[in-house]
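Lecture 7 notes: from sequence to structure.
We start with the chain below.
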Amino acid sequence: MRRFFCLSFAILGTCVVMLGATLLAQASSLSRVGVWWTPQEVSQSDNKESRGPDIAVDDGGYLHLIWMDDTPGQFEPCYVESENQGSSWSDVEPVPTTSDSSQGALAVGSGDTLHACWWERTAYPVSYTLLYARRTAGAWGVEGTVVVTDSDLKKPSIAEAGNYVHVVWSNKLQPHYDLYYSRKLVNGNEWLTPTVIADTSSSSLYGRMAADTNGNLHLVWHENTSPNEVMYISATVDAVQTTWFSPITVSADLSLDASTPDIVLGDGLVHIAFGVDVADQDYTYDVYYAKFPISNTDTMSPSVLPNSTVRVSRELPTYAGPSVALDDQDRVHVVWNGVTGTDTWDRIYYAVSEDQGASWSQPIAISRDDEWPDGFPTIATYGTLAHVAWQQKGTGYDHDIYYSHSLPYMKLFPLALKDYS
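Predicted structure tokens for the same chain:
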């Protein structure tokens, strides 16, 4: 019987070796930083400027990433994809454009169709054009103009819901910015005349939009009041129109400036992350989180992520802009940028909650502490893996896009062996 007992350990040892080999194989050529892979540069841009990444994951687990790159001497959208969860990336593919482009947004729609939008500026005469492109059959095609205006535009957000593609952006047609909205049929070409979502007397900026499983829309943004506030609004979508309800102030219980929100939906809940000024400390922010049922905003109660306080260096960017995602186990993932402790420059920080915000992990830095500041993080999930991209400032005008992802999420259980001898 002792031989059987020893054989069990021999088999166990073999299994451990095989498991270790499997994990090493998953690691590919990447090494670890804490519980994250070592960041890799994916923009392949040499000494050029690469700015403003936006990442998305489709139903098959393919990663999609766009940003703005000045490859031809003017900024244009650029795109890469990964078919192996970020171990390698495709060559950079420019999206056709004619004028200087800025601030792209990306969304995955039905059938894993990719939707992108961005705005372009012409100098003589000055005009701003919000453009839309769709990726089908492995190629991008610019398929329409959402709006043309002679007034400044700010970052758009895009989503597919209810057989329509929806776009939201900020436009300065008055002395302040308002949030504007338009939509088109997924397979159509005609965009509706833009309408104002919430006509306020202050600027409405940083709009971020998401769609729920019923095809309705949810939007958060930054309202430039005193103090600055984070706002939320929802809308129903039908064949006749998109109906927006009354806006709600997410940060109503906070007395400090709140800004740069992000939103994700899952399991009938709305999840929002945003930055809040720290009192009497310049360029210092905490990260806050709020959740509530889609049908009941009365339970909204924002709370701070423990130990999330960061300073920002006024390099990339001048605020802590959190990005939030939800994985298959309803774990909430948040990333943001800033400096803590002895950091040399801004880094990308990450925390996760396994109980939908009741408690949070200790924040960890997932980008290097080097001489280059990091900012504008964007996050998406597939399974239990979190995928993050961000912008890193280099020498002069050199800016690159970096990427990292978390390790597979595993729970280890104690192994009990019984000696029958």
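Points to note: The longest helix spans residues 2-27. The CA atoms of residues 379 and 388 lie 4 Å apart.
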